[in-house]
Design brief:
91 residues, 36% strand, 4-stranded antiparallel beta sheet, alpha+beta, 4 strands, DUF3579
Length: 91
Amino acid sequence: MTTTRYTISGMTQSGQKFRPSDWTERLVCTQPEQLKRYSGHLKIRRINGIKSIVFDDQLKYACAFTFERLVSFAKTNHLVFTEETIEGGTP
């Protein structure tokens, strides 16, 4: 199965580190009932020392609001946002 994996980096398109430092935790709701809905489709990661959020296209079906919120946040704040097509797997 082909999946699209998205990564939002804590780095702006102009190369500045995004602040506040806990932006990933603030953006991703950590309520247990929320996490159950998108478990496996969204992860907070540190990539090359930069806090990032990695999620797949299945998040759209598990929690469309969260998916749209993440994409909108990345665009509004001019964060580095990448898409990658992968065969199977999760973020």
